[in-house]
Amino acid sequence: MSKKSKEKFGKIVYFDEQAAVDLLELEKEGMESVVIKKLNETAAQVEAGASVNKGIFNFARLKLSGNASHQKNNIIETQITSTLISSFMDIIKTNQKITKLENHQLIIPKDSSAYFRNLVPILHMIDDINKLNTLSAEDKDNFSGINLKGIEDTLDSLSGYYDLLCICENGKKKIVRFNIAGLRNNYNLNDLTKMNLTLFGVKVGESLDTNLEFEHQIDNMTTPHNTTKTGLDFDEEQTIQVTYEIIDVILAGV
Mind telling me which InterPro entries this protein's record contains (predicted)? Predict the structure, then answer.
């Protein structure tokens, strides 16, 4: 990515504000807090039409997406988000830890956490799967064994981050993770797979495989496995650990 040109988007569809704040605080050695504090105080005065208490500023009091699911409903939060996006766009040019992904395909594997999470809106309107006689056998199988109550909270409490498979232009695979609270404009995880997105994130680790099925991920918590391959000359067995980068996405846009 060229460090001289500034990235431009027509629309921001995902922004993990809490992750952006953490990165900006490290990048700017705490100065982002000062900027947001001043913005918070100024915007509050404009909104209230009066002087406000300029006491201790605490990021924990801010309702940032990526920290807790929250809909922006006032000028303070909206302007803070805009400021964070602008600040993050600025450091994209210089921060070597930020990874850019474009010209890729995002996939939600069947039976993955993201797959089940994306079914939640449909599950909310179902009282009894057996009453839906119009569903095909395959659709009924998708719902089979799912506890309809509490699935959303349960999945979110496990992590809040949902893994999608990313197939890059060169065929290389990566795992990209989205915080469900960072989705904007009422988009859902499935919407992300339909867009020509440019992603910016930070590498947080590596995986030995790209099997994102929920059951497989649970098994890996206690039974990690290695990938082994045999040398072409068959004289000796070589153990090769094939790894796939895991990227936590901070910002995505088109």
Answer: DUF6414 (IPR045633)
